[in-house]
Amino acid sequence: MKKTKIEDINRNIYDIKNKDEYEFKIKKGLSKDIVEEISAKKNEPSWMRDFRLKALDVYNSLKLPTWGPDLSCLNMDEIATYVKPKTKLSNSWDDVDEDIKNTFDKLGIPEAEKKSLAGVGAQYDSEVVYHSMKEELKKQGVIYTDMETAVNEYPELVKKYFMKCVPVYDHKFVALHGAVWSGGSFVYVPKNVKVDIPLQSYFRLNSKEAGQFEHTLIIVEEGASLHFIEGCSAPKYNKVNLHAGCVELYVKDNAYLRYSTIENWSKNMLNLNTKKAIVGKNAKMEWVSGSFGSKISMLYPMSILDGEGAQTEYTGISFASTGQNLDNGFKVVHNAKNTSSLVNAKSISKNGGKCTYRSLVRINENAKNSKSSVSCESLMLDDISISDTIPTNDIRTDDAQFSHEAKIGKISDKTIFYLMSRGMTEEDAKAMIVRGFAYEVSKELPVEYAVEMNNLINLELEGAIG
Amino acid sequence: MKTDLILNETPIRTANNYNINNITLKDIDIEENVPQFKGMNIINNSSKVSVTETKKNKFLPRYFLSDELIMQSNKDCNVNLKIESNSSNNTQLFIDFEFSKENKSLVDNLDVTVSKNCKLTLILKYDSKDDSVGYHNQLLNIVGKENSNINVIILNFLNKSSNSFVTINNELRKNSKLNYTIIDLGSKNFIMNYYSNMISDYSSNTINSIYIGDNEKVIDLNYILHLRGRECNTDIDIQGALKDNSKKHFKGTIDFKKGCKKSIGNENESCLMLSDKAKSIALPMLLCSEEEVEGNHSSSSGKIDEGDLFYIMSRGFNKKEAMKLMVKAKFNKIIDKLKDENLKSLILDKIDEKLS
User: Fold this and answer.
1) B273 → chain A, closest CA residue
2) Chain B contact present for A403, CB below 8 A
3) Is a pLDDT exceeding 70 seen at residue A2?
C-alpha cells in the first residue's frame, strides 16, 4: 500500500473518456416533445409511445423523495435523456465503432466473453451496440437480446411483463425511466432450461450531462436457471450525470436466478436505479451487489416472495469515499407461506464518504412459518466519514421468525497488532482486514469479477490508509 | 378540541411507504384550560430532595411528540413541579398520579435536576381508579450534573381507554449515570419520545423497558440518544409482547456524534407475537460520524417457542398459564433489576392481569 495522499483517485480504465461523439443527442430537459421524439427515433409501436407519455404524466405528478440523500444537485433541464452512439447494434465486435470497441476492450468485456460468458450485451450511452449469445443457448430457446429488439420481435412477452413488476407509480425516478427508457437487455429462459454459464450486460455512459435509462427484463420460466451479471461504469465529468435504470426479474416456480452487479459509475453520477424480483413457488432469487462508484446512490433491490417456499438472499457491499453518499440496501416482502430471506450487507466508509444501509423486511399476515435473518456490518476507516444503518422491520404475523443484527465499528487495534506481530506493515494489515471484510461478497462473484472488486478496493484504499 | 395528530417523527426519515416515519392518531382531544389534577400523591422521605410547584417550567425540548402537545404542555399544564436532589444518599421520590372520573386529564411538566455527586430514584406511577377515559401529556426534563446517579422508573397502568403521551428530555454531564425503567402495561395509546443528550465524557444512559399491547392498543416508541462526550455508554433493552390487534412501532436511534471516541452503544429490541393480528414494526438505527466507537443493535420478533411451551405444559400447566410464565420469564431480566420488592410484585400482578 502506498502512503501518499491522493486527492482524486485515478480510476484508470474506468476514467478513459472518448470524445463526446454521437449520431444524435436529444436536447436537454424533459417534455412531451422530447419523449415523443425518443419514441419516434426508436420507431416504436404506438402502445409503447402511449406508455411513455403516461409515465411522463406520472413523473410530473410525483414529488422528490422526502428522505435519503439530498438530490437538489439534479436538474433535469441539464440532462440529455437520449444519446444515440455513432454505431449500429451488431453481433460482431468487428462491426462496432473503433473507439467504442476499444473502450469495451479496455474494460475486458470481449475477453471475458471468450473465457467465461454464455452471452454479452454492451450498451454505450443510450443504445446497445453489441449483443451476442452462444448458439447452443439459442437452440434451447433462450432469448437474450436488447430491449428495443424485444419490443419489436416479442411484443406479447414484453407487453405482459414490461413495468408490471416495477409499476411507474413506484416512485418519481421509475416514472422518469418509463418515459425515457432506452437500451437494456431482455432475457427469456424457457421452462427447465439451465443456463450454466453466466450472461453479462455492460453499461457504459460516455456522454457528459446525459442520462442512462436502460431497462433489463428477465423471465426465468419454471424449473429454469440463470446467472446474470451486470456491470456499469462511466468517466468522470464535472457536471452531474444520471442513471435511472430499471431491472425487472420474474423467477417462476422452482426456478433459480442469481443477479450480480459490480457498479462502478463515476463520481459525478446520480445512481437512482430500481431493481425488483417476483419470486415464485420454491424458487430462489440471489442478489450479489458491489457498489463502488457514483456521487449519490439510492439503490434498494427488492424481492417479493410470492410463492410458497420462495427464498431470497442478498449479499452486498458498498464502499464510499470522498464526495460519495451511497444510500443502499435491500427490501424483501414475504408474501406466502414458508418463505425465507437471508441478508448480509457490508459497508466501508473512508475519506469523508457516507454509507447508509437502508432496508425493509416485511413479513405479511399470510407468510406463515417464514424466516428472515438480516446482518449488516459497517466499517469506518477514519473519523471524517459517516456510516448509518436504517433498517425497517415490519412483522405482521405471529408465525414467523425474524432477527436482525448490525454492527458499526473501526478496525480492531488488536487484530492489526496481531498481523503486525506476524511481520506485516500496518498499512498491509489494514488492507488485508478490509479485503477480508469484503470477502463474503467477493467470494460470491465469478473469479474475474472478484478480482475486479479486489482491484477496486485496492484502488480505493490507496492513499487512505497510513 | 378534537384533532388528528401527526406524532413522533423519526430524527432521520426513511421511505414513506415503510409507515414508520411518524404516526397519525385521529380525534385526539387536546383540552384547553385543563382543570386542576387532584389525584397526585408525593412521597418524599428526604429533606435534601425538594419538590416545589412552579409556574416557570416552560421548556422546548429538542425532540418532542407534536407541536400541539408541546404547546399544551407549556400553556395548559396542571401539574408543574421543580424537583431538585442535593442528596448524596440514594433517596427515593415517589409520585403517584391516580386518574379518576374527577381527575381525568393530567398535563404534567416535571423539571428534575440532580446536583453534582448526588443521587435520586424517581418513581412516577400513573394508574386509573375507574374506567373513565384518561388523558396524559407528560414532559419530563432531567439534568444529571457531574457524577450524579439517577434512577427513573415510570409505570404506566392507565386503563384501556386512556391516552398517554410522554416526552422525555435528558441532559447528562460528566460521569453522570442515568438508568430508566419504563413499564408500559396500560393505556389505549402509549406514545413516547425519549431524547438523551450525552454531552460530556463518561456519561452513561441505560434504558430497560417492557410493554404489553392488547386490544387495539398502539405503542409508538421513539428513542433518540446523542453520544457526544468521550467514552459514553448507552444500553437499550426493550422487551415486549403483543396480543389481539395491538400494534407497536419501535424507533431507536443511537447517534455517535463526532468526538464521542471510545463510546459504546447497544440496542436490543425483542417482540413476542401472541396474536396473528398483532403488528410489530421496528426501526433500530445506528448513526455514526465517529470512527473509534462500537455500535451494535439487534432486533427480533417471533412467537413463543412451541417446544418450550410443550415442556412447561408437560409439567402440569395449561396453555394460558404456560404462556404467561414464558412472557414473565422474558420480562424478568428487566423486572429483576428493580430493588423494590413491592414494586416488583405490583408489576408482576399487572402483567398477570394483562395476560389473563
Assistant:
1) A398
2) yes
3) no
CA distance A345 to A328: 9
Based on the fold, state whether residues B203 and B317 are members of the same structural domain: no
Phi, psi of A106 (to 5 degrees): -65, -30
Tell me the three state secondary structure of residue A414: helix
Segment A185-199, tens digit of pLDDT: 999 999 999 999 899
Question: How far, in Å, CA of A218 to CA of A278, rounded?
Answer: 11
> Could you tell me if B241 and B137 lie in one domain?
yes
Question: Do residue A66 and residue B276 have CB atoms under 8 angstroms apart?
Answer: no
Nearest-Cα distance to chain B for A353, in Å, is: 10
Query: Residue B109 sits in which domain range?
Result: 2-303
Alpha-carbon gap: A166 to the closest alpha carbon of chain B (Å): 15
Of A67, A383, A388, Cβ closest to residue B287: A388
Q: For residue B303, give the nearest of A358, A396, A399 by CB distance.
A: A399
Q: How far is A62 from chain B (nearest CA, A)?
A: 13
CB-CB under 8 Å, B273 with A397: yes
Residue B17, min C-alpha distance to chain A (Å): 10
Residue A463 pLDDT > 60, yes or no? no
CB contact under 8 A, B285 and A399: no
Tell me: do B238 and B318 sit in the same domain.
no
Let me know whether B293 and B230 are in one domain: yes
What is the band of A4 on the pLDDT scale with cuts at 50, 70, 90? very low
Whether B19 and chain A come into contact, CB under 8 Å, resolves to: yes
Q: How many Cβ contacts (< 8 angstroms) between chains A and B?
A: 140
The average pLDDT across B124-132 equals 97
Confidence band of B168 (pLDDT split at 50, 70, 90): very high
Query: Which residues have a Cβ under 8 Å from the Cβ of B293 and sit 6 or more positions away?
Result: A408, A409, A410, B227, B256, B260, B261, B262, B263, B264, B265
d(CA B11, CA A154): 48
Q: What is the ipTM of this complex?
A: 0.89
**Binary contact (B286, A386; C-beta < 8 A):** no
Residue B53: other Cβ atoms inside 10 A: 9
Q: Is B262 within 8 Å of chain A by CB?
A: no
- Residue A5 is predicted with a pLDDT of 41
The cell 440471489 sits on which residue?
A: A286
Identity of the highest mean pLDDT range in A429-438, B21-30, B117-126: B117-126
User: Span A229-236, mean pLDDT?
Assistant: 83
Same domain (yes/no): B289, B343 = no
pLDDT greater at residue B89 or residue A104:
B89
